[in-house]
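User: Just a sanity check before I run the rest of the batch. Below are the structure tokens for the first item. I only need the designed sequence back.
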């Protein structure tokens, strides 16, 4: 690296002051090879605006949750500027909610309308299951973290299933789905399905398609598997069939 006459030069302390990044952190980034080393002029290490811009980019990537290891991989690509730009676009795309099921704050009259004429103790059970959460800062209201899960749990309860059974289904489903989704995402990455060769627009189209169609496919497959499991239960005369326990994946 060599500096041109038009470039502003900095000592490490001046660079730290200009970017609000401590000197020790700058040295750490150099050691991790996500910040290029300074040019040496005698015994003085000289930094330039390129270092300023790289530190700004590192801060931006950190704000998006990217770890040092991910930064090294991203910034080491030959087309790092394009890779970073598309990664930031992907980050923005994924930060937007993919479902309309958002947390909702309701007052007690609205909550009473939701619960309706269901048995006494329903509210307490909902709170215990954390489907409804009291708000200490606003006692007249409650938070419903997932209106969709609350509605589904109440429908299952209306069908005769105890609420504690319906709420215990959620972590079982989530654990299974987490493993499945991780395997699907790994498959897409390994097969280069989400490669950036088609540009940011194509990448966004792929993400939208994966979200929408993935949800539809999951719904269909889940319904088919429920039907299969229930038929198997009937064939066994109502006795739960012996199944192999799934081995939990190591984290």
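Assistant: Here's the designed sequence for the first item:
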């Amino acid at each position: 690296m060599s500096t041109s006459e038009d470039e502003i030069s900095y000592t490490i302390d001046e660079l730290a002051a200009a970017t609000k990044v401590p000197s020790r952190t700058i040295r750490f980034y150099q050691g991790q090879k996500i910040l290029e080393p300074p040019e040496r002029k005698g015994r003085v290490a000289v930094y330039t605006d390129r270092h300023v811009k790289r530190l700004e980019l590192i801060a931006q990537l950190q704000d998006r949750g990217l770890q040092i290891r991910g930064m090294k991989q991203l910034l080491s690509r030959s087309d790092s500027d394009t890779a970073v730009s598309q990664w930031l676009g992907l980050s923005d795309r994924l930060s937007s909610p993919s479902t309309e099921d958002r947390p909702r704050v309701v007052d007690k009259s609205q909550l009473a309308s939701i619960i309706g004429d269901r048995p006494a103790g329903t509210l307490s059970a909902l709170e215990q299951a954390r489907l409804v959460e009291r708000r200490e800062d606003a006692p007249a209201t409650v938070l419903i973290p997932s209106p969709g899960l609350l509605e589904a749990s109440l429908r299952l309860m209306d069908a005769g299933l105890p609420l504690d059974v319906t709420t215990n289904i959620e972590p079982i489903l989530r654990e299974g789905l987490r493993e499945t989704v991780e395997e699907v995402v790994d498959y897409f990455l390994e097969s280069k399905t989400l490669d950036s060769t088609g540009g940011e627009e194509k990448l966004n189209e792929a993400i939208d398609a994966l979200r929408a169609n993935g949800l539809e496919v999951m719904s269909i497959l889940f319904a088919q598997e429920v039907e299969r499991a229930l038929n198997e239960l009937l064939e066994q005369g109502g006795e739960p069939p012996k199944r192999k326990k799934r081995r939990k994946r190591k984290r």
